[in-house]
Amino acid sequence: MADTDDLTLTIHHQSKPHTLTLPSTSTLEDLSNTIATTLHIPPETQKLLISPKPGMQKAPFPPTPLTTVLPLSSPKFKITLLGTPTKAIEALHAQSEETARRASARASAFAAAAKHKPARTAGSGGVHTLSDSSSSYTFHRLLPLSYLPRPERSLEFLKRLRDDPGIKAAMAKHKFSVPVLTEMNPAEHTTMESRTLGLNRNKGEVIELRLRTDAYDGYRDYRTIRKTLCHELAHCVHSDHDRAFWDLTAQIEKEVERADWKHGGNRLTGQDFYVPEDWEAEKDMEIVDECGWTGGEFVLGGLREDGVGMRAGAQGAEGRREMLARAAEERMRKKRDDESREGGN
């Protein structure tokens, strides 16, 4: 590993080996500075896991000679670097700023529509039933996101859902009256592990649906979205994903499909609902919702989001930045644990 003049070390970072050559008189501080210039990871974010001993070393790194701190003769000798490159940190900050910009634009759009918000009966909660007329059992306002491309197409999609014979029949039967049906911004409801397809706020105050593809270049399968809408309508009665909820969801799905079939809908398969291939391929990454959003208010102007699905205190642009940072820290922690176990073998 070393000769009289140089010391050659292999640094493992994100499962990739990197070979560094330093003078044999180099210190731990010199190694950190070399990593900063070659791998572009700032010293203050570096952590060096040296196996088998002395273990984890953190900044600030002391000027201790490497020959005295590294177990060079051990067959299990390994250096694992934990740290995020500068470009990745900058990308995370840019993503946080873009999310904040989108949230601000969305809040402005809702504020502009606030004066048109449908009236609600005093003390109303749960399922919104504005009158005994069947015409009240519908979505009273359709709200596409004006800051996303071609909102007029989203509006037509929402109209199609509202006017779907099956949806109309099911809402009339169960007396569902929902003030707002709106689209969901995919970027704000996507993580590395899952994608939220729909949300029901406060048992039918607002229902959000993921209409668009993640790349914003098209729209998802109509029947898949309608199936999600059936799921969210069931949350107007049941908040939790318990047996009663799933029974109601299945009932609504069958009612929607049956009514659509009577009005000329085309059944594509023998299943209750057609499930396209992309749904089957992606379903392990997707969640329909998180038992709805409850316990707070959805205010079109203020855009308060303090229900299930967002951690308490994580509101607005600052909250989203905190959530992104927390997610990045969690990924780093998992990677560090995996590398630590690997280094101990």
UniProtKB/TrEMBL annotation:
Compositional bias (Basic and acidic residues)? 318-345
Q: Note down the stretches annotated as region Disordered.
A: 311-345
Q: Which GO terms describe its molecular function?
A: proteasome binding
Q: Which Pfam families match?
A: WLM
* Protein name, per record: WLM domain-containing protein
Q: What is the lineage of its organism?
A: Eukaryota, Fungi, Dikarya, Ascomycota, Pezizomycotina
